Amino acid sequence: MRLPVRRVASVFAGLLLAGVGLAQAPPPAPAPPKPPRPQAAPGAQREIPGGTIVVSPPTETTTISPARPTPEAAPQPLGYESDLHCFGYLGPPDEHFSAQVIGAEAIAEQIDYMTSDLLYINGGYDRGLKVGDEFWLVSPEQIVVHPTTGKDLGRFYEYRGRAVVESVEPRTASIRVSGACTDVVMGSYLKPFEPIPIPLARKTPPAVAGDPPSGKVRGRIIFTRDGIVAVGADHTIIVDLGYADGLEPGDFLTIYRYAAGREYGIRPVGAYWVNLPPPAGVSIPRTYLGEVAILAVGDRWAIGRVSDSYRLIEVGDEVELK
After folding, report:
1. In terms of domains, do 140 and 101 share one?
2. Residue numbers of the domain that contains 158
3. What CA–CA distance (Å, rounded) separates 106 from 116?
4. Cα dihedral sign for 301, 86, 234, 195?
5. With the CA atoms of 224, 292, 213 and 146 taken in that order, what torsion angle do they form, in degrees rounded to the nearest 10?
6. Do 130 and 168 fall within a single domain?
7. Contact between 170 and 181 (Cβ < 8 Å)
8. Where residue 212 sits, what CATH number does that domain have?
9. DSSP letter string, 164-179
10. Are 237 and 304 in contact (CB under 8 A)?
């Protein structure tokens, strides 16, 4: 069958216009992404191809945090190196020492010496000294008197610093001050250095008004650092208890006094004004003043650092082992 020429031309023109329209149309928008396949909840059922039913086992996540000790439960250092290395000790009145400082490199310009200064001593090979030996630099101070008995307890020797032997000769040697706590004076003595460790201990609450005595060994404060008359927390003191009384580094002592009358009695003892106990027959509760942590112990004396104080603490105040 033969189509008319006019109809064929119309069909051809329509197809041509449709092709032009398709070429000018914008490209189709991309299809949105498929949502992720939901995960089966623990213990839920799901079907996989083939008709098999799968049951996901229930799961449980547990986070274990490492246990941390509380500050109250963990042992803590009871002081600092300076509490011991820059304080001193009680010794015999005429203690013997290895050697004595008798000169210095800068003696024409100085009368007191500090860290890095070069000093000369009156001992060498004849006293067994060798290069590298380390010594305390010590100066003898006052005799310590017991505040209530008046008995001499020994001499206080102050640590002024440390020094190391640099060179040795037959009867003399040179030492270098490796660390000075205060001024090192001419005439200071040398004592072999032995490090003093700072004890660790767990602190417990101090005694307060109304608490009964512990019933353990008791003593008194007999000396304070630098001769301070009244001390508080963080000050260093000496008590008249030691190894002979069962005291050890790390122990705590309760500090107290018996305050009777409007003004309790005091009297001068050495460089201090000390507190006196109430008269015989007078019984009153304790006035708790604070607590002291023991850092170092001698035979019948001990060095402590006041860890707590409610009131000013003085020489003559009493202490009791917790």
Report:
1. yes
2. 81-192
3. 11
4. negative
5. -20
6. yes
7. no
8. 2.40.33
9. EEEEE-SS-EEEEEEE
10. yes
- Helix, strand and coil percent figures for the chain, each rounded to 5: 10, 40, 50
Q: Which residue has the tokens 């500050």?
A: 71
Per-residue burial over 83-100, b = 16 or more CB atoms within 10 Å of its CB, e = otherwise: bbbbbbbbbeeeeebbbe
What is the spatial distance between Cα 224 and Cα 314, in angstroms, rounded to a whole number?
A: 8
CB 303, CB 292: distance < 8 Å:
no
Q: What angle do CA 40, 42, 47 make, to 5 degrees?
A: 40
Examine residue 29 and state whether it is found in any structural domain, yes or no.
no
Task: Round to whole Å and give the CA distance between 152 and 162.
Answer: 28
- Rounded Cα distance between 149 and 10, Å, is 138
Other CB atoms within a 10 A radius of the CB of residue 307 amount to 20
Residues 155 and 255 in one domain: no
As given in the structure block, the two tokens for residue 144 are 């310590």
- Render pLDDT for 260-297 as a digit per residue (tens, 0 to 9): 765 555 667 666 777 667 777 878 899 999 999 999 99
Residue 35: pLDDT band (50, 70, 90) is low
Query: Considering the domain boundaries, does residue 63 fall inside one?
Result: no
Residue 175's pLDDT is 98
Instruction: List, as one string, the DSSP characters of 180-199.
Output: ESSPEETT-EEEE----PPP
Domain boundary among 159, 192, 225: 192
Residue 219 binned pLDDT confidence (cut-offs 50, 70, 90): very high
Name the residue type at position 217: V
For the chain, how many helices (H) and strands (E)?
A: 2, 23
Clarify whether residues 229 and 276 are in a common domain.
Answer: yes
**Cβ neighbours of residue 84 closer than 8 Å, sequence gap 6 or more:** 196, 198, 295, 296, 303
The answer as to whether 23 is a domain residue is no
Residue 133 vs residues 40, 166, 200: alpha-carbon distances, Å: 76, 8, 29
